[in-house]
Amino acid sequence: MTTSGTRAAHRPSRKQWVIDAATELFATQPPDEVTVADIAARAEMTSAAVYYHFSSKDQVLAEGMRVFAAALREQLQALAQAHEPGSDIGAAITSLLAWLGEHRSAATVFFVSSAGMSQDAEALRQESRTELLDELVRLIRKARGPVSDAEAAVTGLGLLALLETAAISQVRGDDVYRSLGHRSFVREVGNLAERIADPTA
Q1: Rounded to whole angstroms, how far apart are CA atoms 189 and 159?
Q2: Long-range contacts of 118-124 (CB under 8 A, 24+ apart)
Q3: Residue 85 half-sphere exposure, CB side, CA atoms within 13 Å?
Q4: Longest Cα–Cα distance in the chain
Q5: 14 neighbors 53 (Cβ within 8 angstroms)
Q6: What is the pTM of this model?
Q7: For residues 84 and 148, is the Cβ–Cβ distance under 8 A?
Q8: What DSSP letter does each residue of 29-83 carry, written as one string?
Q9: Segment 74-133, tens digit of pLDDT
Q10: Integer Cα distance of 191 and 142 in angstroms
């Protein structure tokens, strides 16, 4: 079957190129020191091309954080869906930590570099925390069976705090992470997640 007329050639958007370039820069430099020109150079395009997609570097930062937050939520959703009822939560948390390690630049920007940068960034981070907490509560209910709303919420908050703290320690390579080494660090995070999820175990 043929169609008449012409069709515009499909070209992938360069918007993601801008986000990826900016993320790499924001992960290694204070975001307030990064310029649109820096982002453009890293993305191998002109500043005008960056401005075609984004009105400012703050908008690039916010969009990068939004994309990362959505991917993190989807990863946690997938882990929760695959979780076997009654099985250890520690494995799911360490899997999520491994995923964060694979997305180190974006995780660094989300958890470390963007802190205090803008009200939009903080609002986005808070929205993401709420969504992650909802997913963690689902994971807890699946792993442990019937628990009260209050217990599930408090346990979820404990797991979320652990995940955030472990992610920051990992991306920064701080003293705790370096002294334990990667394998021991991940193992201890998994063990602690288990104790938080089921202190009677």
Answers
A1: 10
A2: 118/58, 118/61, 118/62, 120/58, 120/62, 121/61, 121/62, 121/65, 124/62, 124/65, 124/66, 124/69
A3: 4
A4: 70
A5: yes
A6: 0.84
A7: no
A8: S-GGG--HHHHHHHHTS-HHHHHHH-SSHHHHHHHHHHHHHHHHHHHHHHHHHHP
A9: 999 998 888 888 778 999 999 999 999 999 999 999 999 888 777 888 899 999 999 999
A10: 18
Number of other residues whose CB lies within 10 A of the CB of residue 44: 10
Q: Is 110 helix (H, G, I), strand (E, B) or coil?
A: helix
For 126-192, the DSSP string reads: HHHHHHHHHHHHHHHHHHH-S--HHHHHHHHHHHHHHHHHHHHHHHHT-HHHHHH-HHHHHHHHHHH
Tell me the two tokens of residue 112. Answer: 């470390």
Q: What is the dihedral of CA 40, 44, 48, 50, to 10 degrees?
A: -60
